[in-house]
Amino acid sequence: MVQKPHIKCITISPPSLFFILIGFLIVFTGKSRPPFACDPSNKVTKDLTFCRVNLPIKDRVKDLLGRLTLQEKISLLVNNAAAVPRLGIQGYEWWSEALHGVSDVGPGTKFLPTFLGATQFPQVITTASTFNDTLWEEIGQVVSNEARAMYNGGMAGLTFWSPNVNIFRDPRWGRGQETPGEDPALAARYAVRYVKGLQGNVGNRLKVAACCKHYTAYDLDSWHGYNRHSFNAKVSKQDLEDTYNVPFKACVLEGKVASVMCSYNQVNGKPTCADSNLLKSTIRGSWRLNGYIVSDCDSVGVMYTDQHYTATPEDATAESIKAGLDLDCGPSLAVYTEGAIKQGKLKEVDVDGALANTIGVQMRLGMFDGPKQPYANLGIHDVCLMSSNQLALEAARQGIVLLENRGRGPPLSTVRHRTVAVIGPNSDVTVTMIGNYAGIACGYTTPLQGIARYVKTIHQVGCSDVSCKGNQLIGPAEKAAQQADATVLVMGLDQSIEAEERDRANILLPGHQQELISRVAKSSRGPCVLVIMSGGPLDITFAKRDPRILAIIWAGYPGQAGGTAIADVLFGTTNPGGKLPMTWYPQEYLAKVPMTNMGMRADPSHNYPGRTYRFYKGPVVYPFGHGLSYTTFHHAIAQAATSLSVPMLPIHLENNNATTLTNGVRIAHTKCSTLLTTLHINVKNTGTMDGTHTMMVFSSPPEGKWATNKQLVGFQKVHVVAGGLQRVALDLHVCKHMSVVDQFGIRRVPMGEHTLHIGDIKHSLTIKPTIEEIKY
Questions:
Q1: Is the N or C terminus of the chain more exposed, i.e. has fewer CB atoms within 10 Å?
Q2: Cβ neighbours of residue 368 under 8 Å, at least 6 residues apart?
Q3: Which residues, 6 or more positions from 505, have their beta carbon under 8 angstroms from its beta carbon?
Q4: Is 296 considered catalytic here?
Q5: What pTM, to 2 d.p., does this model score?
Q6: For 82-112, what is each residue's pLDDT tens digit?
Q7: For residue 417, which phi and psi values (nearest 5 degrees)?
Q8: Which of 180, 256, 270 is nearest to 211 (CA)?
């Protein structure tokens, strides 16, 4: 989908003024919305069966479908669903967004004049770098509180098409910033926890309905003549199963998400929104989705107009609905469904099946419960709470990654560094910090404002914007660095460089940014720190090698409180603990990996190096999981198994034991629920400063046919005081964490010696098959 132009956000200082205005609006504009349906004051509809809350939802849905005409049904198949006045049902806009805060990108949500803003958390790639799954769910809870409040105020829907859980496969992708990064296990864990935070998951009821998108293998927008509307992603069964589909499977099976969005692109020659194997067989069949499947906006239309996949628009409509699509973001299903039925390409019962899924979600949200709405107590007073703003700040602090720190680098001192030169095109920005798919923030603290709370500042932009097309402003920036006790350069990207429908041509800093950085670093009288704002990785090898740049910090897009968080890290109020959720590659890597090549694994015969830390073995600028601290940590294994047995039935032996040992045991041929081991790790803070550490555990399979270098199998955030020790217990599920996928897309547990990696420690875990009768 394409974002509409963003309303200029409001910078409010002091924050208390914002809450005074909110209180004013409560008095003069605070009205609850009328019931969406089943209003008891409507004598015609108040006793209809579909309005009886005590009945099972499936019975209520069946009753409503039986009352609708075909034309009324068709009008409900699109995002801007029409009203059905004779049944007391209002129109509804399904498209709202809540990627990292309630957003006004979709037409279902508006802020002004009733709501001045909502909490805008860091962009997802930054939040992912916290590796804190508790935080992810807490953010989801705040976002859904504010979403319900805005719904109650008549300014939002309850169906939010978030999160984006695609894999950040290629560093040039403009939408990589929206994702949790390159690792499928990390993306899956993020998806589950954020969805749970949004939806509430109280029984079968929903606080809001989340949507995991864009299914599947979607990570190219516009590159060298290829675009997302017509791109055919050629994906192996192996890569589909062990990379691209992993987060979506977790979303449905573990997160119980209420919706999945199919993508624009084709996968192996078939549009995802018309692929019955991907939709009906997998999402609704194998994964048992309890909810609806929606198209990305105009995905049905582009099957005919751009992809020429069907001969007529009626064919595109019929194939999509029969494949399992329930809702069209776009007009196609409203325009062409009746024609498809008249032409015999579709039946009314197919339409009923789609509507049963969408209406079922609306009923789970309470939209057919009349005025007695769940969460009706949430209102404008629950938006932009101080506690929510504090959580946004904490998320930014935890997400900042310290890439380099040497010599007399940070933390800076308010005594030694009383004047700081703050330089760069991102040094005093607001909306840049919230990335894309954002809304109107509660207020902002820019990096310049954050640093000014600690010390006196001298400010120069150095470039008029991040494109940095000229170098005429570098001279004043050099003079500022010469006058200050320390220099902080805030550089990087924004949505003019990387965004939806805007993939990058390279991964270098734009324009004259490198020149600005090098010249200012050379001129700086005191320590020089480089802060990067970006969603995607950058090749900043030049800065890494420059001895005058003592520290490098990646802030991602740190949200509304980003400036405070950056300053807190610079001055040591916060000890950084973020870790990179994606690999930072050198520029020359790009020449070997066309964006159109979806292969994850290296192919030396074609000089293809592979993708992500799991399969790429070449040089990097910074590896996945990299991140420093102002203190040091030491790991020691306290307790860990050295061997595990995988029980299997004799009938599941593949020809002989040797074949089983070579291929591994299919996870379908063993009882996975019993295959669990717990790893106990001691984490000691060996430095002089309290700190929070992300303990990551990776696993590599036995040497041989498996191409995986290593894969993330678990992580946990732990706070350790200086000189202290904490023991971390981490569960490893053999079928989930120690398995690999073969070339046929079959997940197996390799037999033999697996290696667990915890920091610099390696631990061997031998897995062997046991032939026995399994009792279920």
A1: C
A2: 36, 37, 38, 50, 51, 60, 64, 362
A3: 172
A4: yes
A5: 0.95
A6: 999 999 999 999 999 999 999 999 999 999 9
A7: -120, 70
A8: 256
